[in-house]
């Protein structure tokens, strides 16, 4: 069968893989190829053991792989063949030179742009999918148009708003699809081509358009606003712990104001994930660049509160466990940065693990999906940690449990049994407020939620 369009995605990660799987599933008339420089990643995408865990992803990939979805390391051939190229390579925070620790590292992006320029023999639409600093499209345009071979490229910004763990649902029924373009005749034509792809399954009124810079900025600002809600509620959780207030009750009362809304008000150990911190720091860096220091300080505060929340958790543990953790055995329930993913990028559990080892505690880590990543993240202190999949086995002989990830399975465990096998006094620090605290207290645990009075037997 001849396909109507050839779509290529460069970068087979958490964004590229699921997004292309959903496009291929919804649009059998297009050929969708996902290419990556990492051959192990591509081999995994072509196997029964996909490189990322995302509910619903396995089923879709099984249904469309080999039909109109292909995973390949052949990037140049893919570029030549493609009408539309999505770019979703990684854009981590820079670790060196100017802007280290703040700005985005665009080296992978720039390499990709040059590769597209070298391999192209015909006009192409290039779609920015990775989150990027505002005006990256301009740099991309300059690189792509810097030879005199007469090939025309249109650059679009189409930020991905999917959240991990709910990625497939978010892709299949997005709140909105945003497409930014140049407002020239060519730019508008390219924009319409991309609208046409999404219109195969997304209602037209949910596909919104803007100029390219607004689109790039909207992605950073969306993540900054979401993260800001979490830091706002987490900052108040510390005040609740000092008073008789209960953060769940406060969040409910505040969230019922329809102007505020009830989502993203769960107090926690702190936010993690590959986006929030990186995108806010990107925003902060940009504001400083334009000498908007007050604005930069405001947003940087969101990251500072998040760091404070993680350290506060450790200090609470220390305070509760008689000011020493040395030699005590502590079990972390969960290591992923959120439930329903194996991703551990920027997971608060990384910080907590390192601090606990620094306090000379012994550590046991359990997680249904993230143990392999946990071992990689903590490779340098691995010998001080046990990684055990079964939570009952993991908690046996421990002095304390600290909940890091809101996996549903944890709320359904038999805590009588767990308590029976732990050291006494036994402690639970619920960094996600997912457990039944009064029941745990009745069983005998000393319970320390986030933003609520502790329940202790002494
Ligand atoms: C986020 C954005 O939601 C998504 O739109 C964007 O495309 C990428 O970044 P993601 O990082 O995958 O998605 O997950 P998200 O659900 O936003 O959670 C981020 C972190 O915040 C997690 O660590 C989560 O546990 C934490 N969180 C979330 C809270 O601590 N409290 C909440 O109320 C909500
Ligand atoms: P995200 O969460 O944004 O999807 P990931 O790190 O999961 O980020 O995925 C980015 C992918 O991009 C990685 O698999 C990486 O190997 C790939 N990549 C980086 N640079 C290039 C490049 N020049 N060509 C092809 N793939 C690349």
In the CATH hierarchy, the third-tier topology of the largest domain is known as: Rossmann fold
Low-confidence stretches: none
Helix content range of the residues, please? 40-55%
Radius of gyration: 24 Å
CATH class categorisation of the largest domain: Alpha Beta
Which architecture of the largest domain per CATH? 3-Layer(aba) Sandwich
Determine the CATH superfamily of the largest domain.
NAD(P)-binding Rossmann-like Domain
Span between N and C termini? 73 Å
Strand content: 5-15%
Oligomeric status: single chain
Give the overall silhouette: globular
Could you give a short account of the major beta sheet? 6 strands, parallel
Number of domains: 2
What compounds are bound to the protein? uridine-5'-diphosphate-xylopyranose, adenosine-5'-diphosphate
Beta strands, count: 14
In terms of structural class, how would the helical and strand content be classed? alpha/beta
Compact description:
The chain is α/β, with parallel strands linked by helices. It is 43% helix and 14% strand. Strands 3-2-1-4-5-6 form a 6-stranded parallel sheet, sandwiched between helices. Strands 11-10-9-12-13-14 form a 6-stranded parallel sheet, sandwiched between helices. It has a two-stranded parallel ribbon with strand order 7-8.
């Amino acid at each position: 069968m001849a396909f109507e369009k050839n779509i290529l995605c460069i970068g087979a990660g958490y964004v590229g893989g699921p997004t292309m799987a959903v496009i291929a599933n919804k649009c059998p008339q297009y050929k969708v190829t996902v290419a990556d420089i990492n051959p192990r990643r591509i081999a995994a995408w072509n196997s029964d053991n996909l490189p990322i865990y995302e509910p619903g992803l396995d089923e879709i990939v099984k249904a469309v792989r080999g039909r109109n979805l292909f995973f390949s390391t052949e990037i140049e051939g893919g570029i030549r063949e493609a009408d539309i190229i999505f770019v979703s390579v990684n854009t981590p925070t820079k670790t060196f030179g100017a802007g280290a620790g703040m700005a985005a590292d665009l080296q992978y992006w720039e390499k990709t742009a040059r590769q597209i320029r070298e391999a192209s023999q015909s006009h192409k639409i290039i779609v920015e999918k990775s989150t990027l600093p505002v005006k990256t499209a301009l740099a991309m345009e300059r690189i792509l148009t810097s030879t005199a071979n007469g090939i025309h490229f249109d650059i679009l910004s189409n930020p991905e708003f999917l959240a991990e763990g709910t990625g497939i649902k978010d892709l299949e029924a997005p709140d909105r699809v945003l497409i930014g373009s140049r407002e020239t005749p060519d730019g508008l034509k390219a924009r319409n081509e991309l609208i046409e792809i999404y219109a195969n399954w997304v209602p037209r009124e949910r596909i919104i358009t803007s100029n390219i810079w607004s689109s790039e900025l909207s992605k950073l600002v969306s993540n900054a606003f979401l993260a800001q809600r979490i830091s706002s509620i987490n900052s108040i959780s510390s005040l609740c712990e000092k008073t008789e207030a209960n953060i769940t009750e406060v969040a409910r009362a505040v969230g019922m104001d329809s102007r505020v809304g009830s989502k993203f008000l769960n107090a926690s150990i702190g936010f993690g994930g590959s986006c929030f911190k990186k995108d806010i720091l990107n925003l902060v860096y940009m504001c400083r660049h334009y000498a908007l220091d007050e604005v930069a300080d405001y947003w940087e505060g969101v990251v500072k509160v998040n760091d404070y929340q993680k350290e506060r958790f450790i200090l609470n543990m220390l305070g509760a466990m008689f000011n020493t953790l040395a030699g005590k055995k502590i079990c972390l329930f969960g290591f992923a940065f959120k439930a329903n993913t194996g991703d551990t990028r920027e997971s608060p559990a990384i910080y907590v693990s390192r601090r606990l080892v620094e306090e000379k505690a012994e550590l046991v880590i359990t997680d249904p999906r993230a143990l392999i990543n946990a071992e990689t993240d903590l490779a340098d202190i691995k010998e001080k940690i046990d990684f055990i999949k079964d939570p009952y086995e993991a908690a046996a002989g421990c002095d304390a449990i600290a909940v890091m990830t809101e996996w549903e399975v944890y709320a359904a465990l038999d805590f009588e049994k767990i308590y029976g096998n732990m050291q006494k006094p036994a402690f639970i620090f619920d960094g996600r407020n997912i457990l039944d605290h009064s029941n745990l207290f009745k069983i005998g645990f000393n319970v320390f939620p986030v933003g609520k009075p502790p329940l202790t037997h002494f």
